Amino acid sequence: MHFIVVSHGPFAKAALQSTEMIIGEQENVTTFEVSYDTTLEGMAEDLKKVIEIKGEQNIVVFCDILGGTPANACVKNLNEFPELSIVTGFNLPVLIESFMFSTNNKEELLAHLKKTHEESLTFIKPKTNEKESIEEYEL
Fold first, then answer.
1. Plot region of 8 (φ>0 → left; ψ -120 to 50 → alpha; else → beta)
2. Distance between CA atoms of residues 46 and 101, nearest Å
3. How many helices (H) and strands (E) does the chain have?
């Protein structure tokens, strides 16, 4: 399984560094940050490159907040990569749990996170219909 952590500013990188201080280096994580000059389209394209290399069925994306540029850039990739898993509202305990999860099964991890962090996380997935606007995704 591969993780992508995306945030406004250096939060994603700092959260990864803090996690690594606690549980050790993580080789299966890519971080992205939105800066003042980041465009939605540019970030979506950067994410797409990693998704194509790692394979959508093996990726869990953690975004800082629902409705922000990081999450919206991920949602822009859902039409092409419907098996991509996007979770918003990440924090240090969520990253630690995810990186240390006992199996490499993405669906088991997501079920665990939904059960243990249902109040703080939002899981984004495509609806079964083929509409393309952001309003057409279930939260």
1. beta
2. 27
3. 5, 6
